[in-house]
Write a structure and sequence with these properties.
Number of strands: 5
Structural class: alpha+beta
Radius of gyration: 14 Å
Strand content: 25-35%
Largest sheet: 5 strands, antiparallel
Order of helices and strands: HHEEHEEE
Helix content: 25-40%
Length: 119
């Protein structure tokens, strides 16, 4: 997301940036590349101190449920406003429907926690 994206006053332009950013994140087919992309995206707002990703299958669609914490609450507020996402249980959370083909490996348990790393 460009540096000025979160400073945009035009609601339509900001909405388009949100859609574009989330669409880019949906292209990642594995948790490590999604984590890397999230760290890059969020670096503009501050440092991620915790990032957990839960993958799940929902109605034939592979999803990534992302939970993250930033160093400061102000950074989280700016990130939530910029991405149009919310908070659950004290963490910033959002769900991505991943644009990846469903494979035989996806037909195991309906959800799985990815390894969590603290940065």
């Amino acid at each position: 997301m460009p540096a000025a994206a979160h400073q945009c006053d035009d609601g339509n332009e900001l909405g388009e940036l949100i859609v574009s950013t989330l669409a880019e994140l949906r292209q990642h087919s594995d948790v490590p590349s999604l984590k890397s992309a999230l760290h890059q995206l969020c670096s503009e707002f501050g440092r991620i101190t915790r990032l957990d990703i839960l993958t799940a299958m929902h109605e034939g669609t592979k999803q990534a449920i992302c939970f993250l914490r930033m160093e400061r609450p102000e950074q989280e507020q700016l990130l939530m406003k910029s991405l149009g996402v919310g908070r659950f249980g004290g963490e910033v959370v959002f769900v991505l429907n991943l644009n990846t083909p469903v494979t035989a490996d996806d037909f195991g348990p309906s959800s799985q926690w990815a390894d969590s790393d603290i940065y």
